[in-house]
Specification:
Layout: H1 2-12, H2 15-42, H3 44-53, H4 63-75, H5 82-103, H6 110-119, H7 125-140, H8 148-164
Helix pairs in contact: 4-5, 5-7, 5-8, 6-7, 7-8
Length: 168
């Protein structure tokens, strides 16, 4: 065994082996840096966003502005008025539609945008579809006034959907 160790030690000290070892170390470092640069130039962050959200775009407004607008919708619940409940649901529906339109989802209304999203099978779309159906009930049944609990439920569905997309 001593002779094998001596031969290995002798080979490890040969100039060509030392050069080859350093060459491989530098080559691996350059490859690693190239991979990082390619991912950065290609826009890996946008690809991750596109895979998660179906689009690489984000709303045109700032997140703070969107959160303020959403809070204004939620503040309607504090008034404890049936008409304010209706307005809160209608505004939440319009808000969701506008944000999805700004992001770039196709369709002329929220139902079409949600249907397009559902084709890709996003898990939170069902909540938005259910909330949109509550909005439709308000539009088509003018005598119906949602209770505070129904309004809270509908706004919660919209909020869960928007939270999933990191909008509010």
């Amino acid at each position: 065994m001593d002779s094998v160790q001596i031969i290995v030690a002798w080979l490890a000290q040969l100039p060509i082996v030392v050069f080859f070892r350093w060459f491989l170390i530098v080559y691996c470092a350059v490859l690693f840096i190239d991979i990082i640069l390619l991912l950065w130039v290609h826009g890996l962050r946008g690809d991750i966003r596109k895979n998660r959200y179906g689009t690489g775009e984000r709303p045109l407004k700032s997140m703070l502005s969107l959160r303020r607008e959403w809070q204004h919708i939620l503040d309607r619940l504090k008034k404890n008025d049936p008409n304010e409940n209706k307005l809160a649901i209608l505004e939440a529906d319009q808000f969701t539609d506008r944000v999805l339109q700004e992001i770039g989802y196709p369709g002329i209304n929220l139902q079409e945008r949600l249907d397009a999203m559902a084709l890709v099978s996003f898990e939170s779309v069902d909540k938005a579809i259910e909330a949109h159906q509550i909005r439709n009930r308000i539009i088509f049944d003018t005598e119906w006034h949602p209770t505070r609990e129904e309004t809270t439920h509908a706004l919660g569905l919209f909020q869960d959907f928007l939270d999933h997309w990191e909008i509010v």
